[in-house]
Aminopyrimidine aminohydrolase
Amino acid sequence: MSTRSDWNAWAAGRESARITDWLREISEPDWSATVNHPLFDALAEGRLSGDDFAAYMVQDYGFVDPFTALIGHAIGHAPSMPDRVVLGQFMGMLTSDENSTFQRTFDAFDVPASLREAPDYLPQTRAFRELLHDTGQGGDYAEILAVLVVTEWVYLEWALRVTRVDGLHPLMGEWIDLHDNPAFQEFVAWLRQRLDEEAAALDDTAFARMAERFRDTVAKERAFHDAVLPR
Ligand SMILES: Cc1ncc(CO)c(N)n1
């Protein structure tokens, strides 16, 4: 379960226990299934065709759109300027470097205008979009942070885990670079720190809601990557 008393019991036997470590643990087996997803090995080892990479990126752009809006909600819900600065800088990267990676990928692999303008989202993409939208509309700051911690920490972990082949397509290399670079590592460490702090101050109801949101986001990560894996 994912109540504050479950967290307290987990933390009791551990030195310097962190809420985000507990959240990750209660999200197993979905967490490890996502980090170790075969899609990422195929991508890094050059076994994903251009068409399959482009299809994944089209679905993922359907994630990035409401995800960018969610960062906006996070900026609005943040308690003060220091958080708004970190989140705003991440928003800047997302809407410049990362957005450009998507656009150049769609160009390089000839994704037709029709698919860019009216993408055919898989049910799992639609479910993830809905989660991001709902969290932005109704979630408090801790719930928003819970979603951001999952989505960014999972991507950091797989990107650090995979081994790239020589001669990997530059756009595929760029996709890995975006998720394992030192600035991104620092951002994920900051997100975790802030969720640890904010979650500790929640009342029991809000704490349970935050933990459920974390678990649901991990489940949706796994389902999304299962759905986009070519077979
Ligand atoms: C589905 C998904 N989760 C996380 C990230 C990282 O932001 C991403 N690009 N796509």
Q: What stands out?
A: The radius of gyration is 18 Å. The chain has one domain: 18-228. The chain is about 80% helix and 0% strand. The pocket of HMH is lined by residues 60, 63-64, 151-152, 155, 221, 224 (CB under 6 Å).
